[in-house]
Design a protein that fits this description.
Four copies of one chain form a homotetramer. With about 300 residues, chain A is of the alpha/beta class. Chain A is built from 15 helices and nine strands. In chain A, helix 6 links the parallel strand 5 and strand 6. The first copy, chain A, is elongated, with a radius of gyration of 23 Å. Chains in contact: A-B, A-C, A-D, B-C, B-D, C-D. At the A-B interface, strand 9, helix 10, helix 11, helix 12 and helix 13 of A face strand 9, helix 10, helix 11, helix 12 and helix 13 of B.
Chain lengths: ~300, ~300, ~300, ~300
């Protein structure tokens, strides 16, 4: 496939190289010209504007830092929209706002062009290893058409529908999950350290109990299915646990704001009659806060 | 080994059965007598008081609901402390407070008895499958002595030192991690649902990206090692991501208190000059809040 | 009145002096004897045990640091309960837990003694100026009987019923309101300072707009009456405001966790259909979280 | 003075009427024409576009709902910028974002026009009573020039400097303080109600202790002066208080997220060695979170 590629940061570079390796023809653009030249040796053609990178290709991939960078590259005077042929497709892999993704979809469709939001999960080393996971959304025909691109850069793709911006929502929600885990780890390790527990031992436990077991996956399944009965572990026992964790933090002088948040949610769950549901029903509370499902 | 076992809820029953299967001799006590009788058929001897369950055994295991239940069973008129021989060991597997565990250690030691805190990770089905993960702490000789018990009920044990209550801290910290993941999942799935994403597709992504990849483990490693440079994903980019997640939540009218917490922590990290560190440095902030490591 | 007084910290000393000035006869006890002697010059009789301070008086006032201090003084071997005559009253002015206050009530009543919880609002200088505000609860006859004590130390009293511990709940809730205002002030002044606004000017505005106007009182009235319609200022406008405050904080790199909390509550209020209510309806949300009033 | 006035909602109408009463000549514009006509009877001239309201006047006041409304009225084809003479001044009283206020300042200055940000504190009834408090910022000459406008609509003005947007920051920070008080009241009244305390009695206490005393003002002074020693009430005692409030909430099943936030901040303060400072030092922590003053 003849593909344009814009944005050669550490993620973009790895993806572009994998596209070349898979035998695709690449036209590349990067604001800092020197970075683009590195790819020239691998067979890419380097151009001077985003518009040129979009000219004459079947699809142009953008992999940029943020909303502003994408706006410049797409809507600018020498932007992608001006260069891309009718029927050709913009594959937007940057992590951008849901709002901008919706605007891009509208603008491309108005110009007779295709738009597929396809943000990826994975750090640069994962990108190099062709192990990215892609979340794609857009008109089904467009998504199917760019499948060879996904095949060349990742290990799999989940298609989340025809509304392109849904893919961006999912990407942001996924990163939020990772950040939540980091903060929780930070609080837990701090508690362990101040309580005299060797961090490497706590790490061993985390691995043994959480990442080498299906525990998180199981809870995700309960949440996806809104299945809170019968309880495997009841909410009121969960509240007890978090209360004790906070007490341990208090004794060791370790503030645990995430634990405080959990306590308040669990206390509310119990106060509202959900004490005997599985503690996965925290998700039920979350839905109700958002105005969903109160009547169920 | 001749073992006493007190507390035959769904967890305790499974553990007791596995001890019998492994060939140990069991004396069991349960407040509700009927439950104990079920184990009689499997070869256990049923007694009428906690003290009797502790008499003449090498170790007595308690697996009870909460602090109060353990206090009653251990310190009561016909409690474990009165029955247990000098040199015999109390293995406390209940999820109890750090403070009570410290009191138990002191009381048993004063009575010339051993005390090992050995809370377990796993739900009843995991206990039945002999797949519990045990966190043990106490005097090394005592911990070594009760190893056959751990072998009979679980798939592994992490020993976290001579201070018994450290095991309880770790257990509480571990459950806190699970609860954090549940709350984060709740908020993320609510965002996905209100944004029109099929929950089953979001579940597929969670599996593909998070539980079938070493991502959480890798971050736990960074946190354990306090290794925040060079950054794989910079804090200020993380802040950008969470900001966009909150904006998506705002547009869909989905409150995300955990995301708000993350935003404030990340904003503080950036304001305090940690913008170019890996976003795992949330753990650094957590440590500093607790009065650790500000000078590093 | 013949009164015992226990606890001569900066608050207690001021109260004891005012009791003497009002003409009451005082028997005082303090753990650190030297402090008690200072009051001797003002006419107080100094004794060696809490029990002695309770002997032969009509009422004994305790003003101590925390739960533990009160427990020692009341339940100890030479404690108040042992010294106090049947029919005499213990006036507990310390800021203690609701649970302990309930236990004190039960213990005194069982001993045929009276118990009035009477925590006070005010710092030591306020106590010296006889300007404390007292919150009293207990059996009406008992509360009426110790009115002369209240008259001698404060400028007013609110009686909140026959259940003594209600007074302690109210005291804790009041201190919580003060602490909330402090944290909010902290965040607001930090935002002002980082935005280049002179803190003294911001202070002038706070005075002019908030403390010299009935604004807080008005909102407290709306909350007390659960009167959220018609709206003076609508919830969705409030959400807008907080959103802009957070954006200002973001631009100035000022984390505002309290503002984040408000944003999430307001967003939930809007998501649940309360957008057109007065923003005082945050209190309605709070009640619902506690399982109150969901049906109204 | 000859004044243009744009935006006749309940706030604007009251302000416009007071300007007329003070003898000023008014040209008014409102998107909904009917509302403007009501002012015609009071002597105002009604025009058809924002630009016309800005033509030939010395100053034009805008009092609109949000950023979008202000952008439309100022930057639109028939907007204020096009109508306003060089040297004439735009007085922006709407509650808008800090960012938009900065943009307005730049645009007006580029056009040779003056710009004063002058948001107001007060609800419609306060506006009618000419009791608004104005926060003004902008070039000193411009601010001085429009003083007659402030005199006609309010009871006072605080000038916060030459950077116009500082006034908007202050307005948002002020509203944040009010919202914080509302949320705190919501949680406190819920605790009181679930604990059986008559809300009207709790209201009486709030009035007596907090709004009829200088307590909030005193704390604001400590925060403004960063004066945390000697302590009137020490941080660790504050932590004790909040802990007891949370325990009371727990017993009554009342989630108190604001109290949880306070607890974590106070625990961090204590962990970081601020336990003996006045609890007003919550503001110190807030400043440090924002990267201010860590070195002091």
């Amino acid at each position: 496939m003849k593909i344009g590629f814009i944005g050669l940061g550490s993620m973009g570079r790895a993806m572009a190289r994998n596209l070349l390796s898979a035998g695709h023809e690449l036209v590349v653009y990067n604001r800092t010209h020197a970075r683009a030249e590195l790819l020239q040796d691998h067979g890419a053609r380097v151009v001077e504007t985003p518009a040129e990178a979009a000219q004459g290709v079947e699809a142009v991939v953008t992999m940029l830092a943020d909303d502003r960078a994408v706006e410049d590259v797409v809507f600018g005077d020498v932007g992608v929209i001006r260069g891309l042929a009718k029927g050709a497709i913009h594959v937007s892999s940057s992590t951008i706002s849901v709002g901008l993704s919706a605007r891009l979809a509208a603008a491309h469709h108005a110009a007779g062009q295709g738009y597929v939001a396809a943000p990826v999960f994975g750090r640069p080393d994962v990108a190099e290893a062709k192990q990215l996971w892609i979340v794609a959304a857009g008109w089904p025909g467009d998504v199917a058409f760019v499948q060879p691109i996904f095949d060349a850069v990742g290990r799999g793709v989940t298609k989340v529908g025809a509304e392109a911006q849904a893919a961006n929502t999912v990407k942001l929600a996924g990163n939020f999950l990772i950040a939540s885990m980091i903060e929780a780890l930070g609080e837990a390790f701090t508690l362990a350290r101040k309580s005299g527990v060797d961090p490497q031992l706590f790490l061993e436990i985390f691995r043994s109990v959480m990442t080498k077991s299906p525990i998180f996956e199981r809870y995700a399944g309960l949440v996806a299915d809104e299945s809170y009965e019968p309880a495997g572990f009841k909410m009121y026992l969960g509240l007890d646990n978090i209360r004790l964790a906070l007490a341990a933090g208090e004794a060791a002088e370790v503030p645990m704001p995430m634990a405080s948040l959990l306590r308040d949610q669990m206390l509310s769950a119990v106060a509202r009659g959900m004490g005997d549901l599985d503690w996965a029903a925290l998700a039920k509370l979350s839905a109700e806060r958002a105005g969903l499902g109160g009547g169920r």
